[in-house]
Every structure is written in C-alpha cells, then in structure tokens.
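Example 3.2
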Amino acid sequence: MTSADIHVLVRINDGEAALPRQDVAEILPLARLDRPPAAPRALAGFLNLGGVPLPVLRLGVLLGGAPPETDDLYSHIVRLKPTEDRPSVGLLVERVLDTAVQPSAAEPVSPDESLNGVVAAQLSINGRFVHGLDAQRLLLAEETVRLAEMTTAMAERLAEWSAA
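Structure, written as tokens:
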C-alpha cells in the first residue's frame, strides 16, 4: 500500500467523497468562522489560525449542493496542504468518516465528465462507489484568484487588529 492509495473519506451532501491523504495537512473541528459580506455561497468563512486567515470552503457547495441552513457542531474542516498555485485552504465537510482508507478498486474518470475535472476516479470503498476528488481541481482559475484576493484582505484586517 502506497501513500498515494490512501484517502480521507468524508460525508457531504448526504453522500461520500474521498480526498487523497497526501493532499491533507490536518483535520480540524468546526470553529468560529468570519464570513465577509457578499461572500460567494461556497465560502463558509475564514478561520483565524494564529493570525493567519485560512479560507474555508463548503465542499458540498463546490460540488453542486445547496449550503446548509446551519452548520452542524460536529462538522470538520479538512485543511489541504498548500501548493505552488494556492495557499492552504480548508474544506468544510459534514463529517470526516475515516482518515486512512484504501479503495479496493479505482476506475479513472475522464476530466470532461465533471466540472474542472474535480472527480478523478470512482473508488470502491467498503463495497460502495465513492467519488475520488482531485484536490488541485476544486476551484476554477478565476475562483482561485478571487479567493486569494479575499484572503489578502482578511489578512490585512487581522493585522490591523493585532497591531492595535
């Protein structure tokens, strides 16, 4: 079993999805999030991690679901590792079900079968088919740029308050 075969299994939109474990930095409990006015539906808010804002995106909304009316206290934030294209991002999920699951089978999915090719594979996990997601394709290029701008604005706001 290689690290590329290990996935983090999450519940979203009353279903399940899997993220490559190698893309996950940590799992955090739901905490207070600051949501800017007029933020897109997918942005749950920003988590203040020691003075550094972590944008937290609703994974279910990114995948086409409706935002919940309220967040469940037992929801989790899956913090993705930063890449050269984007800083660290948090994904708000209904629950993390398992942090080290290995699919018994994986069938690649053509990139044109999902928006931005976010669904990379159909995985067989415990006798169920689960979407295997490509963490690098969760956001479109324009969304990545806009999220970076919003994160910079939130960092400046936090810096003003910490200097006071």
